[in-house]
Amino acid sequence: MEKKLTGISRVLRKNMTKEERYLWYDFLKGLPLTVNRQKVLGDYIVDFFVASKKLVIELDGSHHFQGVGPARDRERDEWFRANGITVLRYTNLQINREFDAVCQDIMRHLGLAEECPLITASRSFSTLKGEKPPDSRIQKPSPVDGKGVTTKE
After folding, report:
1. Exposed, middle or buried by CB within 10 Å (0-12, 13-18, 19+), for 98?
2. For 32-71, how does the pLDDT look when each residue is reduced to its tens digit (9 = 90+)?
3. How many other β-carbons are positioned within 10 Å of the β-carbon of residue 45?
4. Least confident of 11-25, 49-63, 101-115
5. Residues 87 and 80: beta-carbon distance below 8 Å
6. Contact, 28 vs 35, CB < 8 A?
């Protein structure tokens, strides 16, 4: 089962929802902790996992509120609690409309509220629209031939 879930999690990492991309690129990726995306835990795949804090972050789209969605979420959450893992759940609407508040809540649960400056929603809405964030590499002229040299800053 774990091998099957690992393959699914790889696909999910490559096909994140716009809300997952927004939270990942504009906030979680910049944290001073390792955050895993689409991580397999037991028989489940979680959206984001901070192993050092035993914290799962789940983003809930409409399917979480329909049919068997709520019952499945309760079952998952019970399994995580039984294994000492805290689950934070945010709706896609919260990500889209209350991004700063969501980030502050995550920081508080991670114990980073005082250590890290908050990356605000006003920084970039490009990932929300489905675009990848700008490349962090900068073209600098080479002192030898004047052509651009790509460096990482």
Report:
1. middle
2. 999 999 998 988 989 999 999 999 999 987 565 556 667 8
3. 18
4. 11-25
5. yes
6. yes
